[in-house]
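In this supplementary section we document a worked example of the pipeline. Step one takes a protein sequence of length 198 as its only input; no multiple sequence alignment statistics are reported here. Step two produces a three-dimensional model, which step three serialises into structure tokens for compact storage. The input and output of this example are shown verbatim.
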Amino acid sequence: VGEISDGWEGGPGPNIVLGGPEPFAHPELPAIVAACKEAGVARIAVETDAAALSLSGNAEGALSSGVRHLLVRVLSGQDEVADRLSGRVGVASAARVGVASYLGGAERLGLTVAVTAVVPVCAHNLDMLPATVADLAARGFHAVRLITGGPLPSAASGIVAAACDTGMVNHLWVCTDGQLPLPPSHRLHGQADGAADD
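The serialised model returned by step three reads:
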């Protein structure tokens, strides 16, 4: 991290995303975040299921340590479906509380943060994708990134496009990993930054 930070030359940053099976389960996460700040990292993100943020003090601790961006793994906007797909009962409702705690804490502290949902799209959650995006908008997420999570039926293009449209009408940017099928009318959603291909 120090080498990257010292050699950073262009654009905003340096920025870092801490990921893994579940970073909040790592006992050294606070020390790792502190080391990132000490090395001069401008923006620290954590990829998480957000369930740990529902525990007392965790959201505030993440904010006070310098975590300003969450990448939250979401399987469905319906808690029962998300629990079934993850095989972990209660994780979806805990994630709801965790994200709300993080956003609420940021507001109380006057901090600018971003919360991005990362949704792996597969045949098991494709049909509910527009409803999932609507739920994420209602919960205060700032963006959604749809990624390929498995084989998809031929009708997937229209449903992914509908999810993008749902985001737009709810003031929530939706992008894809570029691998999900999209009609030509929605090609900007296939670029993470919304930039057109040349």
